[in-house]
Amino acid sequence: MIVGEAWGEQEERSLQPFMGVSGQELNRMLQEAGILRSEVYVSNLVNARPPNNDIGQWIAMKKKDITKAHVVMRDKMVLPIIVEGYEKLLKEIDLVQPNVVVPVGNSSLWALTGHWGVTKWRGSQLRLDRHQSPEMAASANQNIVGNPPKVIPTIHPAAVLREWAFRTTVVNDFRRIARNLSSREYSEPKWNFIVRPDFVQVIHILTQLVDRLDTADLEWIDFDLETKANHIDCAGIGWSRTDAICIPFMDKTNIEGYWSLEEEAAIVYWLWRLLCHPRVKVRGQNLLYDCQYTHRWWHFVPHVAQDTMITWHSCFSGMKKSLDFQASILCENYTQWKPDKAAWKEGG
User: Fold this and answer.
1) Is 250 in a helix, a strand, or coil?
2) Dihedral of the CA atoms 196, 199, 201, 203 (nearest 10)?
3) Quick count: other Cβ atoms within 10 Å of Cβ 179?
4) Residue 234: which residues within 8 A CB-CB, separation 6 or more?
């Protein structure tokens, strides 16, 4: 099920969503991704045409735009037509029972998930998050059972027509959607991520990785630093698609740091043994930044064999080269993680 924002001129004439040139382009992109338009139910957040074709006329983005007619929905002030459209949309979803709902556009993404910014969240594996006012909850369908539908947002075809560079990305999103049509379950691997480890865990993993390099059982190490106040806050080490450890150094609750002086010295020593091993190939994103910090504070430079930012930009110079964008294209399982980083920056 594809959910747009509101009607345009062609849609208002035909009383159907996704008509005209944007609908034709949607059909072409679906076909390229292996999805038939006949397999897709289409709707909008509001099946009506907003003034000047701008749904922002119904959603107050600034305080000065709020009037007495506006009501609260999620974290925004909206006109009642948005609430009414959203209630009808939820009823449509309950009737259609799609496995995947595809919001195209900011307002439909926000209504269905609470997130704003479709260019940031596109391609992410999300879930339908029902916002219900007390009135909506009282009249809700009580027979809804099981997992909510998957939600995988992408960019509106009308935006693709305005910015043709979006097209390849949107087709890729539809290919991800095509792979997820068979059920409401995301097929995620079993992640083995170690966070907030103790000293024994860190030393055990680092020595084990060095031993594997010694025996040629391991070659590539993925490496990433996060920094704060010109110091190393934490180091991420990955050695497979599903195994990684985050080694903290700064600690919000202890100004002296996460480790004792002796423990930190031992960890840095084993990081040197790992990242400067004669056999190791270190890979990361924009590692020139990270290497400045390892050189300044740890007095070594890892044996870098690949910088994913440089590789990506060399192959696809016309596309964004940020890590989250690369992941949205290349990773089988992807959900935007930047909000996690924002929470971390605030002290989480």
Assistant:
1) coil
2) 130
3) 14
4) 225, 226, 246, 247, 248, 249, 250
CA 83 to each of CA 88, 136, 169: distance values in angstroms, whole numbers, following the listed order: 9, 10, 31
Mean pLDDT score, 265-279? 98
- The Cα–Cα gap between 320 and 79 comes to 36
How many Å is the maximal CA-CA distance in the chain? 74
Structure tokens at 264: 């930190």
Tell me the pLDDT tens digit for each residue of 295-325: 999 999 999 999 999 999 999 999 999 999 9
In angstroms, how far is the first alpha carbon of the chain from the final one? Answer: 36
pLDDT value, residue 137: 54
| Number of helices (H), then strands (E), in the chain | 14, 14
Q: Per-residue confidence at 340, pLDDT binned at 50, 70, 90?
A: confident
Beta-strand ranges (E) seen in 135-254 are: 150-151, 192-194, 220-228, 231-238, 243-248
Parallel, antiparallel or unpaired: strands 126-127 and 100-103: unpaired
250, 233 in Cβ contact below 8 A?
yes
pLDDT digits (tens, 9 = 90+) for 213-245: 999 999 999 999 999 999 999 999 999 999 999
* DSSP 8-state symbol, 254: B
How many angstroms separate the CA atoms of 171 and 33, rounded? Answer: 6
Structure tokens at 279: 């056999």
**Domains of the chain: residue spans and CATH:** 2-179 (3.40.470.10), 192-319 (3.30.420.10)
- Collect all residues with Cβ–Cβ distance below 8 Å to 160 and sequence separation of at least 6: 25, 29, 166, 167, 170
For residues 83-111, give the mean pLDDT.
96
The CB density around residue 57, as the number of other CB atoms within 10 Å, is 14
Q: Is 10 helix (H, G, I), strand (E, B) or coil?
A: helix
Nearest residue to 61 (alpha-carbon basis) of 79, 48, 43, 46:
79
State residue 348's pLDDT score: 54
